[in-house]
Sequence to fold (242 residues):
Amino acid sequence: MMTFMRVALISGLMAAPLGAMAQDRVVPSISVSGEGIVTAPADMAVVTVGVMHEGKTTGEVLDAVSMATTGILAVLEAAAIPQGDIQTGRVSLIPRYGRTVLGAPDYTQIEGYTASTTLSVTTHDLTTLGGLLSDVVAGGANTVNGVSFGIDDDSALMDEARAKAVEDARHRAEVYAQAAGVNLGGVLTLSENSYGGYAPVVMEALTARSFDSSAPKMDVPLAAGDITVSAQVSIVYGIATE
Fold:
C-alpha cells in the first residue's frame, strides 16, 4: 500500500508541471477591431418648445404660461400629433430678486416672478415640421429649445452596420496575416463594443424675442440631413497551423 501511494504521489508531481505548461501555452492569434458605418435619411424629429413669462405676481405669470401652453396644445391637436408624442418637460416658477447698491442679489426683496414650461413633441412628418414650428410660436411658444432629427426604427440599419464591422475586422486581420506571413484561422472570440448606435442631428436652439406675440409669416426652414449609424466589434482570429 505504501509503495502504491509513493508511485501515485510521484506521478502527480510529474504531471502537475506538464498540466501547468499546457495551460500557460499561448495560442497564436491576431486581434483586430472593425467598424461599420451606414447612413440613412432622418424620418423623425423631436422638437422642444417652451413658454416663459415674467410678471409681478405668481398668479399672473402662471396664468400667462398656462394660456400659452393651452394654445400650443391646440395647435398640436389640430396638426394631428398623437398625445403619446407630446410630453411636458420642465415646469418652473422662480422669484426675481432685487439688487443691493453693490449689485448683489437682495433676497429680502422680490420684484416679480418668472414662470416657464417646456413641451417635447415627436413628429414623423418632416415635410410639415417647419410649418408646425411656426404654428406653435403663433400659438403661444416663445422659445424653441432645439430640434433633434433621428430614425424611428434603426434595427435594420444596425444589423447592416454590424455586418460591415465584421467585414472590416476580417479585412484587417487578413492584411496583418499576409504581412506576417501566416495563414488566418477561424474566429476565437467576437465582441460588440457598447458605444455603437447613432447620434441624432441636433439643431441649435431658436429663441423668439422676449414676449413678442407677433405670429411668424413663413415656415421655419429646416434640413433634416442623413443619420449615421455605426457599429464596432473586436475579434480575435486564430492563426492556422497548416
In short: The helical segments are 2-24, 58-78, 129-139, 155-180. Residues 44 and 125 are 7 Å apart (CA to CA). Confidence is low (pLDDT under 50) at residues 1-14, 207-211. The chain has four helices and ten strands.
